[in-house]
Amino acid sequence: MDTQKQNESKVITIYDIAKEAGVSAATVSRVLTNSANVRPEKKERIHRLIEKYNFKPNALARGLSDTRSKVIGIIVADVRNPFYADLFVACEVAARKAGYTVLLFNSLGETQQEEKLLEKLQEQRVDVIIQVGGRVDDLQSNKEYVEKVKHLMNTIPMVVTGKLDGTDCCQVRIDATKSTELLMEHLIGLNHTRIALIGGSMSVQSTYEKCQCYKQMLAKYNIPFRPELIAQDGFYNFENGYDRMNKMIAHKPSAVIAINDFTAAGIMRSITEHGLRIPQDISLVSYDNTFISNVLAPKLTSIDYNYEAFGKKLVKAALGMAAGKEISRMQMVTPSLIIRESSGPAVNP
Amino acid sequence: MDTQKQNESKVITIYDIAKEAGVSAATVSRVLTNSANVRPEKKERIHRLIEKYNFKPNALARGLSDTRSKVIGIIVADVRNPFYADLFVACEVAARKAGYTVLLFNSLGETQQEEKLLEKLQEQRVDVIIQVGGRVDDLQSNKEYVEKVKHLMNTIPMVVTGKLDGTDCCQVRIDATKSTELLMEHLIGLNHTRIALIGGSMSVQSTYEKCQCYKQMLAKYNIPFRPELIAQDGFYNFENGYDRMNKMIAHKPSAVIAINDFTAAGIMRSITEHGLRIPQDISLVSYDNTFISNVLAPKLTSIDYNYEAFGKKLVKAALGMAAGKEISRMQMVTPSLIIRESSGPAVNP
DNA sequence: GTGAAAGCGCTAACAC
DNA sequence: GTGTTAGCGCTTTCAC
Predict the structure, then answer these.
(1) What is the pLDDT of residues A246-300, one digit of tens each?
(2) Is residue A347 part of a domain?
(3) Model confidence, pTM
């Protein structure tokens, strides 16, 4: 009854365990961290007590003591966007497997918020920070932010999915050019020549690259470039896709590349409302291959990144940096094309 | 040049600030926490130094010292599901506003994983835990899990979105009955009598309640109950919706209630493939009102929970419990009906 | 109003 | 192998 009570209320520490086991706290710590040999019988006794009291070492104390918190901070633009959610979960799984915890912050599109989040992660003494989306997506890295990160990186290494010119961040990037090649070759192979590119903004690095590659591919296949088929001065959402497609209809594209699945959904809506069918009248393809691609009708042909592998790569890079290892500062994620129902042969012009 | 160097490299502490300010660490701590009066000039001097070095107090040390980490642990089934993502972000925003950090863990559908996550949060010494989805959704609370939580709650209070019979958890629940009433009244008002209910499992509390209410509403409006119009022995995803609807078609429902937006998407697919139109031939409505409702064509009529308010309520309850306040152990979230394009009048039978 | 000192729970030399 | 001791960086009595 007495031990029962103890068991129930107070938070126990390694001292409590040590005392009852008749050893010192250091010994308990040793079995906890497996950092040195302990006589089997004592080890056994200690394990039993840990079990008995369901003892869990205080991560705060541990982090304080050895100056590594074993947590990875992650900043994403918005987990409500399945692209980020997929990537975050992949990171969480990979981190957990390595004995790390992930701490997620959403910047929710407020770029100035990002600096605050960086500071919060610093307060939490995360061992390394992974930033996905936000200012690391910018074609022109923000001066102030770069300064902030440079300073921060004296203490905490960073891994980003985009870039931050002038910093020593490790970059793990999606190959936007390759992604676009896949899409363009798929469409051109289906005899499309009037290919529109809709959604996103040219101030975003990956979007810029996609547009560049789009033009190169046209040139490569001797297809005339028509500026009116490009609409990349907006957002990445449904509404923008819808609005832009409404205007694009007049230019009679035979195929449309959407900057992501959200935008594709808006484009699909517009096409359907104009009484056209996908893919019989217009083909529609997109980047990201989130579950949205699977939920729409017709299902979208889309570019996949293998989120699990992407997350693993990010975490591996992060842990490498945290350990002070010399790792490659630039790594690429290889995209692949998932063909579904939304793309088909071009109709004869 | 010298101070510059210091500034750049080592992590500074309250002692460094104290030393340079010519005061004791205690005084710096006082201005940091605003816990006592400090002579204005010193305060000023300290603030300047904090600014100069961009000093951030070590949250681990702080948490160790005052035994409150100021972090809220959140366990969700899967943030890749927009329902959880919406709720999580709402919690994060509310928590941040209160000076708290949130630590998110995904159980990813492995119920036995939940106990592990609970322990992990315990290690991190979170002040309180919010669990959304998973075992707290069960109609019959799992015995083992209940024991685990009961024990845990001697130290860390918990808030759940479902229930955990036998524990002292604070329950913040969606009113599933009210949700169903709204849906049923909407459909019945449109003259539907052959209303199907598809998706989910009866072993889940909220689904069970929805089914009960469904029957009550039929009775209330003198509509005969047809068991074949119910399919609630599956999952909550697209595939289940699709498969179930394929079978349901034969029973000629004039309207279908989907257990959530994912399921609704699958149902929509099936209906369309059968050459039927929504809502002209069949009406389709759902619970949750995630962005999926807006992305599908036609847009879904769905039940909304006001995620922002829901998150606030959860966090408020959590902070209340963490502070040891006596708060209501059962709170309801009021649903509302969002009418869009997927529901319309019943065709004459 | 402010400093000294103890303590939060753990890890890591350092002895023996 | 194992105990002793000294921190890790902060908060908080307790004096003065």
Answers:
(1) 999 999 999 999 999 999 999 999 999 999 999 999 999 999 999 999 999 999 9
(2) no
(3) 0.95
Q: How many whole angstroms separate alpha carbon B143 and alpha carbon B199? A: 26
The answer to whether some atom of strand D lies closer than 7 Å to the beta carbon of B58 is yes
A313 and A297, same structural domain?
no
Residue B98 (CA) to nucleotide D9 (C1'), in angstroms, measures: 24
- Enclosing domain of residue A212: 176-305
Cβ neighbours of B104 in A, within 8 Å: 102, 104
SS3 content of chain B, % helix, strand, coil (to 5): 50, 15, 35
A287 bridge partner residues: A303
- Same domain assignment for residues A52 and A74: no
Instruction: Read off the tokens for B208.
Output: 């069970």
Beta-bridge partners for A331:
A172
Total structural domains in chain B? 3
pLDDT surpasses 60 at B65: yes
Predicted confidence at residue B9, as pLDDT, reads 64
Confidence class for position B5, pLDDT limits 50, 70, 90: very low
Chain B: closest CA distance from residue A219 (Å): 35
Could you tell me which of A261, A259, A293, A91 has the C-alpha nearest to residue A172?
Answer: A91
What is the average pLDDT across B245-267?
A: 98
* Region B159-186 average pLDDT: 98
Instruction: Verify that A150 and A196 share a domain, yes or no.
Output: no
Nucleotide nearest to A27 (CA to C1'): D2
**Given A50, A65, A80, which residue is the final one in a domain?**
A65
HSE-up (13 A, CA, CB side) for residue A104: 32
* Interatomic CA–C1' length for residue B121 and nucleotide D6, angstroms: 29
Chain D positions with a protein C-beta closer than 7 Å: 1-5, 7-13
Q: Is the CB of B63 under 7 A from strand D?
A: no
My answer on whether A150 and A213 are in the same domain is no
